[in-house]
Every structure is written in structure tokens, then in C-alpha cells.
User: Fold this.
Amino acid sequence: MPRLLTQAKQQNEAATLPPKPVALFVGGTSGIGKASVEALARYAKGNIHIIIVGRNETAANQIISSLPQSPESNYEFVHCDVSLMSNISSFARSLSSRLTKLNYLFLSTGYLSTEAFKPTSEGIDQRLAVTYYSRFKFIQEFLPLLQEAKQLGEAARVVVVLASGHGKPLDLDNLGLKKKHTPFLSLFYGPACTELAVEEFAARNPAISFTHIHPGLVDTPILSNFWLTKYFVWIMRLLFLKKAEDCAEWMLCPLLGDTFESGAFHLNEYAEPVPPQSLHITPERQKAVYDHSVETVSPY
Assistant:
């Protein structure tokens, strides 16, 4: 039975947070990320340091001005175009130089497209750069600060909001989709790689929690702006779209819940485990994707 919204809220409300936790939200200026920032700040009663990463400073400042305040509150926005791995490297160096720990890393950047392969200046497909490789890069860069939090006896958790349980078996001879690229392959590539990367990161860092979670169908600006859905959003809202603030409660469950202390987790839209048969994890795929991802993002 799905975890009810009231249950998710009760769990999050009852969570014990570390002393002035540090949370990094990548994609936190709209949609699920914005709603999750607001919910976590509320549960922390403002006693938290939240860094919002994105491209829209105006939206971020509006969010920050609405968050609960306390003598311990520290809210900030840092601009970063996450489609470029070099930008993430520069951002991570700057932020890591002034942080002593990171408790929560929440990755929810969105990108909908039906385009053919569209390389960035670094040669990575634009959609894949945003939906998968940037997430991998952020985790890789901030592992030392997550480990510092764990050494303090505090929570150290990563939540990747994408499409857990909706990947397809990967062609290991076409990683990066440079040999063959279609919108269909691109759609399922990120989720498939993420489930494998989550497993490998957890195996290499057993004290830290890594979660890949599916948000379901949520009323966010990306649907209103995407050409395939923008004319139908109104009826989708009536029939089945979740509100972003409701979705955020389920997305925060693995960030705050006691049962997600360490390990790899693959969760559905109600923060419950996805069926094992919907995952395509094998040791061969896991190692191949991890090695390929390191090779792809590390030069920048």
C-alpha cells in the first residue's frame, strides 16, 4: 500500500535533524526542488544552512525571502549552469572551500526534450548532461563533505529525483548515446544509469545513503513550457497531476527517514521500494556505467 501523504508529513515532522544541517539543492528554484527547499526549511524551523543552485537568481531570492528565519538561518543562492561539468567543478571548489560538512544533497534538475543528439561544448548530449552526468558529477565532487558529516555522527544523504524503476537495459557499447541516439533511448538512459550509479556509489561509500526516487506526474513549470504538454496541462491538473508541495513530502522521506540511514535505495513516487524486477542492475553494467561516468565527467 502506498505511503499516504499524511504519513509522509508525520514522518518528516518527527525527524531529528543534525545541529544546523547543511543542505545543497541543485535545481531548487522551481517545481519539486523549490517545494522541497521550502518543506525542509520549515521542518528545520529555520535552523539550517540551505544552498540553492540554479540559473534563476530572481526566483531563488523570492524563495529565500519566504523561508522561516531564526538566528541560525543561512540561505543562499549560487548560480551554476549544470549542463557543463567544468561549471560544476568550479562551483564545487568554491563551495567546498567554505563548508566543513554536507548533510543533504538533493538533485532535481529537469530537462524535457525530443531533440536529436545535441552536444554541449564538452561533447556530452545536452539532455544527458543535465539529467544524468551533472548529477553524477555533483555526487563525486561532494563526497568528501558528505563523509565529513558522517564522521561527525550526522546524516549524510543523497537524493536523486528522476525516474527510479523506469530505466531500460543499457547497451554497454553505446554509453553516452554517441553511436546511436533517439529521443526514446535518451528518455530511459538517465534513469538506467542512475540506478546503476546509486548502487556503485553506495558500495564504495557504505556509510552514506544514496536514493534514486521517481516523483510521478507533478504539476511543475517544465510541463507548462514543454511543447508536447503545455496545451494539456490544465486537464492533466484536473485528472492526475500531483501538487509540487505534496510531492516534496514524499521526496523528503529518504532525506529524513530513519530507515534510509545508509545504502542504496530505489523508490517510487510514494517513497516505497520499486519492484526489483523493474531494475536492471548487474555487476557488469554497474561497473561499466560507473567507469564510463568517471571517464566522462572527470576531465572537466
